[in-house]
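Need a sequence for this fold. Nothing fancy.
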């Protein structure tokens, strides 16, 4: 089998990066299972995919979600061979104004949910001696910034998870990598723009331009650019344990 014949699962597939990754994998010929909480957004993503899709609504902060999602894919198609753990969200606050609930919410979705998905995915990948795991992390997995302590801690953590699992399964035909984007043009960044505008008195346009200017290329990353990097991780069986930075040159690692 080639990468193109495989069964993929994309979390957070309802919009933004996850939607672009799903469409890209589908265009390459993979069967793509889509999961998020919003059934309506998943249906829109499915409509944008040229090949077969399967949608499973779930809240990934539910400890039972991973087992339910993987079980649904297995019942319909068979074991997940390509896992893209993309679902995530951000939080911005001074560290002394970050509540226990905010901290826990970041860890639950951005770190614990990918852990549970990887834990559920690995046994079947190991048995078939093929697997691709790609976690969408962030350049906040590589460097810290003011006001994102909880988000950066969760993303640094997920890079540690990726590196460690990559080492553990290296002899089993399984690669595990992270893609680490800068600011991407998605609904999540729209929310960041609104938050910056609200606290700074700037217009949305000024706030968006400020985010674009943070990156040496002077613009936001496109979802297609992130999806391309995910596809590279799927295709390239020689690369594992890496954090692939797609941030317009901000972090030179
Ligand atoms: N946008 C950026 O600038 C940027 C930069 C670096 C890294 N990233 C990372 O890239 C990933 C995708 O970001 P994005 O910008 O595409 O975000 P987005 O536009 O907000 O989309 C997030 C996706 O995750 C799903 N999701 C959120 N909470 C969930 C939950 N509890 N259970 C299941 N699904 C959930 C959302 O669907 P529902 O709400 O319907 O569940 C949605 O489909 C995240 O991990 C993010 O941290 C983004």
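Here you go.
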């Amino acid at each position: 089998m080639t990468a193109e014949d495989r069964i993929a699962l994309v979390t957070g597939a309802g919009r933004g990066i996850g939607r672009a990754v799903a469409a890209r994998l589908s265009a390459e010929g993979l069967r793509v299972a889509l999961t998020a909480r919003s059934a309506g957004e998943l249906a829109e993503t499915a409509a944008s995919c040229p090949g077969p899709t399967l949608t499973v609504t779930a809240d990934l902060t539910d400890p039972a979600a991973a087992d339910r999602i993987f079980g649904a894919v297995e019942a319909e198609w068979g074991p997940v061979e390509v896992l893209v753990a993309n679902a995530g969200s951000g939080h911005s606050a001074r560290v002394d104004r970050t509540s226990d609930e905010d901290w826990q919410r970041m860890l639950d979705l951005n770190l614990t949910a990918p852990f549970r998905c990887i834990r559920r995915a690995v046994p079947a990948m190991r048995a078939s001696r093929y697997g691709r795991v790609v976690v969408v992390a962030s350049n906040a997995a590589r460097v810290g910034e003011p006001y994102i302590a909880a988000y950066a801690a969760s993303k640094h953590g997920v890079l540690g998870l990726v590196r460690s699992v990559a080492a553990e399964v290296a002899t089993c035909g399984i690669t595990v990598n992270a893609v680490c984007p800068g600011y991407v043009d998605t609904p999540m960044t729209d929310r960041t723009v609104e938050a910056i505008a609200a606290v700074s008195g700037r217009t949305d346009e000024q706030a968006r331009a400020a985010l674009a200017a943070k990156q040496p290329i002077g613009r936001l990353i496109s979802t297609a650019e992130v999806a391309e990097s995910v596809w590279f991780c799927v295709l390239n069986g020689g690369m594992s344990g890496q954090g692939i930075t797609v941030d317009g040159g901000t972090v030179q690692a």
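For context: Strands lie at 7-11, 31-36, 53-57, 82-85, 131-136, 174-181, 243-246.
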